[in-house]
């Protein structure tokens, strides 16, 4: 009976991860994401179900969860800033609803960290992403009108996701997870390498130049982090500076030349509009720099977001930069809380890698690299119902657990 319950719990976890990542139900229920009105009702119900079940499972292990909860208080301070931003929000009702969703998302992240070790978390993510990759390929082969074609490029793959950039972003993360597991595990390595190669192929077929650049940089970063961070400080600091400069140069080259690499025809639109969008967003940031416009309120049909949209002449759903969106939502207050927590954990990861050769500490650094790269042109920071934010919470909390009890 106990084995059955444990297996059921793992199935719930994998299913929940897929709900947060993107399920095959989404395109099927929305006729390939063409139905806009009322198409998110079932999705909201599924998210709510994960919140409720997670809360129930947390209640069964509340002592362990309380211990994990206290490992990093700044994460919860950031959630508190989101909550109190309702007092100065453009729309307090929207902010409150979004905070409820963010709380449920972080609640699942807390459950994930308290229930599974970091490697177990990554293996469960790998199972989910393997299923997602299979479903993407299946959609392209069997339902190409859903799986292929996006704005500006009718041949780019999008699989079970609304657009090619989301497919690319998802399998950059997938590639990082499979690569890490393949390099740090001895069992079933060929399966893990297959997952990594498949992730890379899906990124290529998505024709997302940003995702291709991120995929390459994260792979290279994993290979060099461990060696460099074990060097003496006199050698490490120049080496890190050189590698960072080289990485930025490589990133710029891939972004500018990826159309040639992919052999695509015409101009890629991945970064189109950002050059006009970001200055317009910065102008709005300057109007309320200290506290922002309230969590989740700026882009939700507000008069302020309409000014940006009129300026750029396209319907921007967000700032396409996680750091700018954080500043818009919570002002400098929220940015400082996030940056302080991020830097503390980053430095801690570097310190632990130098003195403790465990793969968990290396994953924290790799994932932080992914978070920075993915938020340069997209938004995943502090996002409700986001797989990236769940893993941010669970990775930080898990990395601070010195011992793990068998539950």
UniProtKB/TrEMBL annotation:
Q: What is its main location?
A: membrane
Which residue intervals define the domain O-antigen ligase-related in the entry?
196-339
One annotated Gene Ontology cellular component of this protein: membrane
Q: Domain of life, per the record?
A: Bacteria
Task: Give the way it sits in the membrane.
Answer: Multi-pass membrane protein
Q: Show the InterPro entries listed in the entry.
A: O-antigen_ligase-rel_domated, WaaL-like
Question: What protein does this entry describe?
Answer: O-antigen ligase
Which molecular function term from Gene Ontology is one that the record holds? Answer: ligase activity
The listed locations are: Membrane
Question: Which PANTHER family does the annotation name?
Answer: O-ANTIGEN LIGASE, TEICHURONIC ACID BIOSYNTHESIS PROTEIN TUAE
Please verify whether the record's keywords include Transferase: no
What keywords would UniProt list here?
Ligase, Membrane, Transmembrane, Transmembrane helix
Residue ranges of the TM segments? 41-62, 74-90, 96-113, 125-146, 166-183, 190-206, 212-228, 235-254, 326-350, 362-382
Could you tell me which species this protein originates from?
Answer: Nostoc flagelliforme CCNUN1
């Amino acid at each position: 009976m106990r084995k059955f319950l444990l297996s059921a719990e793992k199935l719930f976890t994998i299913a929940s991860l897929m709900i947060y990542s993107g399920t095959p139900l989404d395109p099927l229920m929305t006729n390939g994401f063409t139905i806009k009105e009322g198409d998110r009702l079932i999705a909201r119900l599924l998210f709510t179900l994960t919140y409720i079940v997670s809360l129930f499972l947390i209640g069964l292990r509340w002592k362990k969860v309380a211990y994990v909860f206290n490992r990093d208080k700044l994460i919860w301070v950031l959630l508190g800033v989101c909550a109190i931003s309702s007092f100065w929000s453009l729309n307090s009702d929207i902010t409150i609803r979004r905070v409820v969703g963010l709380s449920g998302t972080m609640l699942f992240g807390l459950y994930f960290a308290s229930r599974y070790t970091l490697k177990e978390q990554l293996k469960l993510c790998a199972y989910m992403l393997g299923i997602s990759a299979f479903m993407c390929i299946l959609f392209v082969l069997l339902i190409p009108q859903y799986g292929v074609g996006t704005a500006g490029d009718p041949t780019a793959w999008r699989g079970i996701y609304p657009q090619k950039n989301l497919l690319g972003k998802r399998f950059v993360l997938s590639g990082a997870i499979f690569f890490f597991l393949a390099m740090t595990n001895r069992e079933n390595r060929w399966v893990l390498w297959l997952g990594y190669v498949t992730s890379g192929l899906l990124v290529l077929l998505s024709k997302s130049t940003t995702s291709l650049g991120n995929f390459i940089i994260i792979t290279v970063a994993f290979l060099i982090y461990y060696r460099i961070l074990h060097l003496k400080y006199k050698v490490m600091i120049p080496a890190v500076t050189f590698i960072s400069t080289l990485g930025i140069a490589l990133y710029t080259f891939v972004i500018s030349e990826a159309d040639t690499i992919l052999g695509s025809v015409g101009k890629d639109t991945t970064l189109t509009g950002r050059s006009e969008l970001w200055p317009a967003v910065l102008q709005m940031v300057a109007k309320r720099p200290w506290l922002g416009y309230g969590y989740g309120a700026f882009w939700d049909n507000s008069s302020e977001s309409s000014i940006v949209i009129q300026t750029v002449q396209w319907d921007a759903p967000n700032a396409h930069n996680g750091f700018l969106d954080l500043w818009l939502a919570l002002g400098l207050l929220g940015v400082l809380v996030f940056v302080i927590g991020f830097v503390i954990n980053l430095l801690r990861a570097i310190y632990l890698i130098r003195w403790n050769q465990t793969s968990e500490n290396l994953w924290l650094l790799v994932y932080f690299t992914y978070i920075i790269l993915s938020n340069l042109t997209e938004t995943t920071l502090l996002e409700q119902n986001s797989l990236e934010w769940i893993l941010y919470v669970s990775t930080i909390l898990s990395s601070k657990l010195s011992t793990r009890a068998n539950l």
